[in-house]
Amino acid sequence: MLPLIAMLICPGQTTLEAQACATQNVEQSDAKLNAILGDRTFSAWNKHRDRFCSLAKESLKNGSIHGQVLLGCFQQFNQLLLNEFRSLADPPPMQNRAAGEWVHCIIKRESGHQFDGGCMVQPFAGDGSFHLRNAFHDVDLIPGINRLTIRVTEPGKAWLTVQGLNLDQSPSQTRSPAERRDDDKTCWITRGLSVCIN
Length: 198
Description:
By secondary structure, this protein is of the alpha+beta class. It has 2 domains: 4-85; 94-197. It has 4 helices and 8 strands. It has an 8-stranded antiparallel barrel with strand order 1-2-3-4-5-6-7-8. Strand 5 and strand 6 form a beta hairpin. It starts with a helix and ends with a strand.
């Protein structure tokens, strides 16, 4: 019988699969951070990250999804720190790139989260529509958002679809109308979110 991890297709369809996927994601981001920080600094990071996540999820500690939610918190902290260490001036090595054309993008969320760096854009439909994701594989653009799609409906207007993961690592998708900014044609705006590429 194959171990679960060998058969795993993330993000998983059951609670056990979702938790195994979340564990896998944290292990991968832990390894990347350890390589950057070194053992001693990474150990200190882990200690403080785990403490803050435990405090943040204290109200769920007796629930069945506590472990999964905690892992989601670990992953979000790790991704935030990994983003800070990336060199945004140059595209990533080919083996680490997502598919598409490398562009510089600035994404701002009303919550205060912001991404300013390398993205991969995939045009489609031939009308200015595109998919957008982080230039690095498996790294969110900003916490909770791993892919954006602008589907142009008419000149200057589009539907913006946001794809990501909830705190429990389940897939999420939201859709809202977006408009191209009059003062900057490289930017699209919707409620609480702006997306600019150049």
